[in-house]
Amino acid sequence: MAYVKTFVLMPSHSLDDFPVDLGDEQAASLLNHNAVSWHPALLAQTGLLPQWHRADVPPPPTAGLVVFVPEVAEQWLTGGWIEQTRGYGVRVIAGASDRDALIGQLFPEGEESGGDWAAADPDLVGDFFALGTCFLQMELLSRQQRYFTSLDELTIQTRAVAAARAWLAGESALAREKLRSCFERLHESREKFYPPVCYQVDLCLVAAEQSGDLLAAPNTSARPMNLLFSGEVLEEIAAMRPDVANELANRLGSGTTEVVGGELMTPPTSLVPLGTSLWHLAEGLKVYENHLRMRPVVWGRRSFGLAAGWPQWLERAGFRGALHIALDDGIYPDEEHSRFRWQGFNGSQIRAMSRIPLPVESAGSYLRFASRLSESMDHDEVGAVVWARWPAVKSPFFEDFLRIAHYAPVLGEFSTISHLLTAHNSGGPVKSHAPQEYWPPNLLHHVALREPAPISRYASHIVRHQKMRQVGWCQTLVQTMLRQHGMVASIEREIELAVPGEEIVETEQLEAIEQRLDAERTNAAERLAKLLIDPAVSAEGWLLINPSSTAVTLPVTLATKVEPSVNAERRVVTVPGGGFAWVPRQRPVEVGKGEGCVVDDFTLRTDLFEVTIHPETGGIARVRRNGERANRLSQQLGIRFAKERPYRTSDETEETDPEMVRYSPMKLISSEVIGQSASYGAIRTTGELIDPERLTVLARFTQTVTVWPGASVFEIRLSIELLGALPADPWNEYLAARFAWNDSQAALTRTVMGAALPVGMDRFECTGGIEIAEEDCRVSISTGGLPFHRRHGERMFDTLLQVPGETANEFRFLVGLDQPCLGEFSEQLLVEPLVVPVASKLRGGIDRGWLLNFDQRNVRLIRLQRSEKGLGLLMVIAETEGVAVSLNLRCFWNPQVARRVGLDGTVLSELVVTNDSVRVELASHEVAWIEVLFD
Questions:
Q1: How many whole angstroms separate alpha carbon 921 and alpha carbon 935?
Q2: Best CA proximity match to 141, nearest among 314, 386, 373
Q3: How large is the C-alpha radius of gyration of the chain?
Q4: What are phi and psi of 18, to 5 degrees?
Q5: What distance in Å separates the CA atoms of residue 714 and residue 771, rounded to the nearest whole number?
Q6: CA–CA separation, 893 and 872 (whole Å)
Q7: How far is 500 from 827, CA to CA, in rounded Å?
Q8: Rounded to the nearest 5°, which phi and psi values hold at 152?
Q9: How far is residue 902's CA from residue 929's CA, in Å, rounded to a whole number?
Q10: Nearest residue to 170 (alpha-carbon basis) of 123, 130, 128, 118
Q11: What distance in Å separates the CA atoms of residue 694 and residue 775, rounded to the nearest whole number?
């Protein structure tokens, strides 16, 4: 059959209402019919470009006519039209969507309609298909850009037909030349409505098991591409496929391949300590440099971990750009920009891109491409579209786009992300996003996947991290004071690699880590104690070591080496920040401390405040400072229900409407005073949580409240037995500790990422403490690392204790009144100061002192380690309260040199040293790396 003209039936009235929101199957059918209609053999025969035609008014049947009927257009046709039209000698291509199947219908085997292709280059057929794809995209893009002048079809037709006939004749070079002129003409047409350069970004997500596909994929070394993987994945690739790692290292030097990443592992940033995030960033960069001989300059990650602190950390680590996109679930500011300046909460900026990627494997992506690129052209400095894929993913449409870009940047040139971000002087608009705008999906994921310990896994890691900091602090100081060389061997790596995240760490592994950690903690404290005590002066007591940068005054458990659990007692002691204190075994006579604790059935009173237990619920009815009437805090336990339930509190008649409640009522069963002395006071209550509708028991609890004279803190210990299962809706149905206060104008602040930040969203994370600040009083609550909280109204919030899969049933809170610094207070519950039983006093006849002293309470020591440049210390410090400060950092020896460095050790500035002190200026919420050398 000789073909004379080609039509593609359009499932719309014109290109102005062309469907772009189709499912993948229908989209693939539509796009492939369009592409195959540009087959060079068909162009050579007809001498014409294929034309679009309305499907509801199809062209009259004529012999030699070719009509492509995409699946979505079939429903526009009358019944039996395809069979009837074929009877007139029309070649109707329908019922298939794959390109090979369409070609088989167009040129059936045994017919001469295709002509002699013996001399033709089969690879060039794909270039003609790409031209058809490009022509359609240009038609759609010009309309999206409100440019309604038709493309130069006559010129393109002349050149495309000439290219097709050159292809048929085996003149491949001439065919390519003519094709190039077609693409260049389309490029000129695009420049009429959008003259600037526009970009496409190929973002390839790499997993270790798919690394071999990177080398097998065609054209990967000839075009710019971006490979996204973590340091952990790179280590796996290097172990499994060293040839791939070597090839990647070679390609990175060419400038066409770029690695996007940065961290070793990608834990959820807002659910882990700041030190954990910084450790994974530092260790990850070492892995990239080791295997690829260079570090990534663009930061990105597959799992959600966006946070307002990243611009500062990345800028200090030497990154030039960042991906501000989430490739999984999670809430974040998703305003899209091809390029903008991402400003963190401390004012630091880094260039970033936030264009949400289109999935390469989805055919629907290519129908939406024109609208996505047009949107970027309208709102961004430079138009850009991002494609996301796995290495092995293949798509004929993506191959079309690669072929188009090879001939001319009609739809945008492929680019590395760093080039896109730095190609022009301007970095785009400045966008500052508040910390509360980022919300991780981890709790939902854990519950949906039925993973164990969805809450306590984070609290446990935070406690392990704090203990590890104590170990590192003691080990580093001992080695430095003894002038020992070499870096400190530590359990830090094991702990940080066991960080909660995408992979589940086995319970046995965590238990082994914790046992070793406790042993190292004891050993490190004892080694430091030997340097501080005077063996010539005999006196039994305890040496308390406080690695925290600020002083603590709180109850500390004191025990002897012989039967420690039997001989343990708790005393309120004050230990200097970064220092130590000696406490004698024999308690000294206290003068002027009042009468200790006064406890009756439901009240605990010290010289500073009183706590009243609710006689019906067993929770805390009120907390108030002495001499005041105002209630500062109330507390209960409760199971929250997704919907309110009726609760009949007495024998109401049927006509009486029951009270509707959202939480299970809390019922007191018993209450007893378990401690009343000059040392402490404690009340223990037991009770039940009741189903308000059925009046059955949902859970049983034991709650102990303890106070100490001279300390403005009290402790809440909980033990809970849940009798049934909770629904798998963790943010709406859960068991929680509930806190309430009177002043609806009180400011609610949380600690996360090493900073005190306002609570914004109803659902929020907090890895430290929560502060309720009224006009004349501040109440601080340290949650022991429990990270998930939900606010209700202006005067209440819940701390989630149990959801489906949670195994922890014992919890501890520390509540403080008028604490000067939330960041400092939030650490105190996690781990007490180190306690070493000793038989000697301190050297020099003192009873307390410091080794590293900070004179500002709002500055925390995040990490301490040996300097790699000599005898000295490298400290990571952070301002926590959002207030610029001038810090006086004092050392146990006089420093010779002090300087501010980057995360990679690059010297940023010299610091002023005066005797034993170093002056450090810190901006609001700044994280700084300070290096101090003694020789």
A1: 24
A2: 373
A3: 35
A4: -60, 135
A5: 15
A6: 10
A7: 20
A8: -75, 75
A9: 6
A10: 118
A11: 43
pLDDT of residue 491: 86
**Amino acid identity, position 750:** R
DSSP tag of 506:
P
Mean pLDDT, the chain, whole residue set: 91
Instruction: Please give the single-letter amino acid code of residue 365.
Output: S
How far from the centroid of its chain's Cα atoms is residue 20's Cα? Answer: 32
Show the tokens assigned to 686.
């037991």
**Which of helix, strand or coil describes residue 202?**
strand
- Paired strand residues for 682: 675, 706
- DSSP per-residue codes, 325-385: --SSS-B------SSEEEE-TTS-EEEEE-PPPEETT-THHHHHHHHHHHHHHHHSSS-EE
Predicted confidence band of residue 815 (pLDDT cuts 50, 70, 90): very high
In whole angstroms, give the CA distance from residue 645 to residue 664: 9
What's the CA gap between 525 and 834, in Å, rounded?
A: 7
> d(Cα 935, Cα 919) in Å, to the nearest integer?
19
What is the distance between the alpha carbons of residues 215 and 359, in angstroms, rounded to a whole number?
21
Look up residue 110 and give its two tokens: 């045994």
**Distance of alpha carbon 179 from alpha carbon 201, whole angstroms:** 24
Q: What is the DSSP letter of 331?
A: B
- Residue 413's CB is within 10 A of a number of other CB atoms, namely 16
**Is-contact 151 136, C-beta < 8 A?**
no
d(CA 384, CA 412) in angstroms, rounded, equals: 7
**From its phi and psi, is residue 739 left (phi > 0), alpha (psi between -120 and 50) or beta?**
beta
Residue 850 and residue 816 in contact, taking contact as beta carbons nearer than 8 Å: no
The span from the CA of 833 to the CA of 684, in Å, is 26
Q: Residue 397 burial by CB count (10 A; 0-12/13-18/19+): exposed, middle or buried?
A: buried
Please check whether residue 305 is in contact with residue 268, taking contact to mean a CB–CB distance below 8 angstroms.
yes
Place of tokens 């309720």: 772
pLDDT over 60 (residue 589): no
One-letter amino acid at 645 equals R
173 alpha-carbon distance from chain centroid: 50
Q: Is the pLDDT of residue 110 over 70?
A: no
Q: Would you say the C-alpha torsion 838, 843, 849, 851 has a positive or negative sign?
A: negative
First to last CA, the chain: 92
Measured torsion, CA atoms of residues 892, 897, 902, 904, in degrees rounded to the nearest 10: -90
743: helix, strand or coil: coil
What is the β-pairing status of strands 796-802 and 225-228? unpaired
Residues 580, 213: Cα–Cα separation, whole Å: 57
Neighbours of 111 (CB within 10 A): 10
pLDDT at 754: 83
Give me the pLDDT at residue 403, please. Answer: 96
713-722 vs 810-817, strand pairing mode: antiparallel
Cβ-contact 180, 407 below 8 angstroms: yes
645-700 per-position pLDDT tens digit: 999 776 555 567 788 999 999 999 999 999 888 788 999 999 999 999 999 999 99
pLDDT, position 219: 47
Name the one residue in this structure whose structure tokens are 């101090």: 932
Q: How confident is the model at residue 753 (pLDDT cuts 50, 70, 90)?
A: confident
Contact criterion met (CB below 8 Å) for 445 and 788? no
Nearest to 469 by CA among 93, 84, 862, 202: 862
Q: What is the pLDDT of residue 79?
A: 85
CB 203 within 8 A of CB 389: yes
Query: What kind and span of H or E run contains 515?
Result: helix 507-532
In the block, tokens 């000696």 appear at 582
Residue 218 has pLDDT above 80, yes or no: no
Cα–Cα distance measured from residue 393 to residue 402, given in angstroms and rounded to the nearest whole number = 14
- Tell me if 927 sits within 8 A of 274, measured CB to CB: yes
Sign of CA dihedral 125, 406, 96, 100: positive
